[in-house]
Design brief:
This protein has 140 residues and is mainly α. The chain has one domain. Helices cover 78% and strands 0% of the residues. It is elongated, with a radius of gyration of 18 Å. The two termini are 21 Å apart. 31% of the residues are buried. The mean pLDDT is 88.
């Protein structure tokens, strides 16, 4: 630890946190690619192998981010929850509108389930990224 006040401020502001932003961003990237892939086949039935792999990758990254964040010490959980709640509301509405478009295009069965899970990852990854970015600089 340094006696320099600037070094102390830097250390307290930029404490080590897990790469949650990168993991949630990666999850978002995978499900957006998967969503575009599924949409490119509408109204036909898309082959599900690639879509399920992308969806599974997004889910795994979101779960890894949740586990890594849960282990973080000195994290501002109250701030995280407050920001996440409102951002999730906005993105859940967006995801519901996208889901409606897929249903309206007569997507059914397992294709709709895959798209629904991708939209759930979409609706939770962006709010998690926003909330993490705000909470990592907040006082615990």
């Amino acid at each position: 630890m340094s006696t320099d006040p600037l070094a102390t401020t830097w250390e307290s502001t930029y404490r080590r946190v897990p790469p949650v932003g990168w993991m949630t961003g990666g999850a978002l990237l995978l499900v957006v690619i998967g969503g575009v892939y599924m949409a490119s086949y509408a109204p036909r039935t898309a082959p599900l192998g690639v879509a399920i792999a992308l969806m599974a990758g997004g889910v795994v990254l979101m779960l890894a981010a949740a586990v890594a964040l849960r282990r973080a010490r000195g994290f501002a959980w109250r701030t995280f929850r407050k920001v996440f709640k409102w951002a999730f509301l906005a993105y859940a509405i967006s995801a519901a509108m996208i889901e409606f478009a897929f249903v309206r295009d007569h997507m059914r069965g397992s294709s709709l389930v895959v798209v629904s899970v991708m939209l759930l990852v979409f609706a939770s990854s962006v709010p998690a990224t926003i909330a993490f970015t705000v909470a990592r600089f907040a006082e615990a």
